[in-house]
From TrEMBL:
This is Carbohydrate ABC transporter permease. It is a multi-pass membrane protein. It comes from Microbacterium aquilitoris. Belongs to the binding-protein-dependent transport system permease family. The chain crosses the membrane at residues 12-36, 72-96, 103-125, 137-159, 180-205, 238-259. Its main location: membrane. The lineage of its organism: Bacteria, Bacillati, Actinomycetota, Actinomycetes, Micrococcales. Residues 68-259 form the ABC transmembrane type-1 domain.
Amino acid sequence: MIVRAREKWLGRVLLIVLMLVTIMPFISLFVTALHAPGTYPSGLEWPPEPRWDNFVTAFQSANMAALLGSSFLIEIAVVPAAVLFATLAGFALGHLRPAGGRIVFVAFILGLTLPFEGIITPLYFQIREMGLLNTRWAIILPLIGLFMPFAVMWMRAHFITMPADLSEAARMDGATTWQLFWRIHIPLSVPALSSLAILLFLWTWNQFLLAIVLVNDPEKRTMAGALGAFQGQYGTDIPLLCAGSLLILTPTLIIFLIFQRHFVSALMQGSLKG
């Protein structure tokens, strides 16, 4: 009993330490955002006169109202398409298991090793040849392709754990492959689909590199592209940059808090089946 109580106590202490490590960057951003614009705060020093209007100034300076609409347009184009393609590919690789599926699976694994920074230069020239520079398509199309390796792996891992008895029973009742996919597997895949959609939404919303390199018009970028508005030729306004970062993070935090049950449900589902 003493050993169990000690382990339980150590576990709680570890969780508290991890929680503090996680929230410390956000506390630092918040405190820095309350300093006077143009200053360079040192450490976690609470300002003598907090500048709450920095959030309004940051919102207006970066024209975040226009970027908010642009981000939603990009989200609407990227997330549903990526989830649809990943679900179809994941079902084929994880359940139908066609000939050559292992080779395709290895190709997707290799795709996980490609960092955005490593392919941004050839991607720039390719998008330029397609005539899509400085358009939202320059962000939408690359993101869909770059999300595919992880998204397909995620959905394949889900479909590969589905009981084969369900499919066999449906086949005996005369169900086609499409009916098997749409009427049986999709309803059972809601936790995996919703958690994947959440992840893709967060990654698309926070996409900074593609928005800065491939789109020159600030109003056609994602919300993360607004951070470039606080960097001038001779320096960076640190308080306004921190205020803008918090404004950009707020929608993703709200989305995650609303749908966190679906996300945890998908993770628990995978752990129980695995």
